[in-house]
Amino acid sequence: MIKKFKRIVIKIGSNSIVDSKTKKIKSKWLDKLCKDIAQLHKTKKIIVVCSGAIALGSKSITKSVIRKLEDKQAAASIGQIELAYQWRSKLKKFKINVSQILLTLEDSEIRRRYLNARNTIQSLQNKNIIPIINENDTVATEEIRYGDNDKLAARVAQMIGADLLVLMSDVDGLYEKNPKKIKNTKKISEIYKIDKKIEKLAKSQTSELGSGGMTTKIMAAKICSDNGCTTVITNSNKNNPITSISIKNSTFFYPSNSKNSSKKKWLLNHLSPSGSFIIDEGARRAILKN
Ligand code: GLU
Residue 234 contacts by C-beta under 8 Å, 6 or more apart in sequence? Predict the structure, then answer.
């Protein structure tokens, strides 16, 4: 299933990369993932969006669950070093260089910064370097943050014109009912349109360490769908976490046929839309004529 895609954004949630009990990196799992990434990197452009900074740094802040935003930010600043170190050393074994990019919501919402970030990523890709991206948690306050890396990853996918976004999860995909509560419920393999019914299904299906859950994954899939990019939700707990992805073990969301220009799509998928328009009579007439 993965072969036909050329630009792939891989989003890894805290649950996938950090052990929820020890709060340490799942080293063996990351080895398997890096092997897969190294294989794909030979013929495709790969970008990683990786969570886990807060989870990794939390043990230095408190033994219990972190609640205050400033403590989460402090934990992220500790954990991010560890996260970047792990990626660098694991991919170095395959002679692959990595870079770290920390983005804030404004970097995707303000056009000039969006284009700057895009240019930086393109420049790294031209040099065959894999960017490892996370939210810049230490400066992001509650009102101006992505809050979860699913939406960040979707905006990154849009930024670089990716054709596939892989959302790694602790479940195989979207189910007809919550699989953690109801046994033998069926996984949905392919979704062509994200409608109210799909959004409702996603609402109840959440996870432990990260902040996202299914709802934000569906929001991410929606952004990608508008931008001609396929999204797949897949279980990270497999031997070849990426190369073994198929309709049988994952949920695929296919793109819509939106004909909007890339600037319109960027505007349309703003995560925190705000502002006002002042239009004159001529503009009013032009808008009414589409
Ligand atoms: N940026 C956060 C971290 O690295 C994770 C956000 C999320 O839950 O996706 O811990």
Answer: 166, 167, 168, 169, 172, 173, 241, 245, 249, 250, 251
Is the distance from CB of 255 to CB of 229 less than 8 angstroms?
yes
d(CA 113, CA 98): 22
- Burial (Cβ within 10 Å: 0-12, 13-18, ≥19) of residue 237: middle
- Tell how far CA 217 is from the center of its chain: 8
Question: Residue 128 and residue 218: Cα distance in Å, rounded?
Answer: 30
In tens, the pLDDT along 102-158 reads 998 888 888 999 999 999 999 999 999 999 999 999 887 766 677 789 999 999 999
Residue with the nearest Cα to atom 7 of ligand 1?
Answer: 148
CA–centroid distance, residue 171 to ligand 1 (Å): 18
| Cα 82 to ligand 1 centroid, rounded to whole Å | 14
What's the rounded Cα separation, in Å, for the pair 257 and 192?
Answer: 11
Give the tokens for residue 2.
Answer: 């993965």
The C-alpha atoms of residue 82 and residue 60 are separated, in whole angstroms, by 12
Candidate from 14, 100, 102, 138 with most ligand 1 atoms within 8 A of CB, to mutate: 14
Q: What is the pLDDT of residues 25-73, one digit of tens each?
A: 999 999 999 999 999 999 999 999 999 999 999 999 988 888 888 999 9
Find out whether 33 and 96 touch, Cβ atoms under 8 Å.
Answer: no
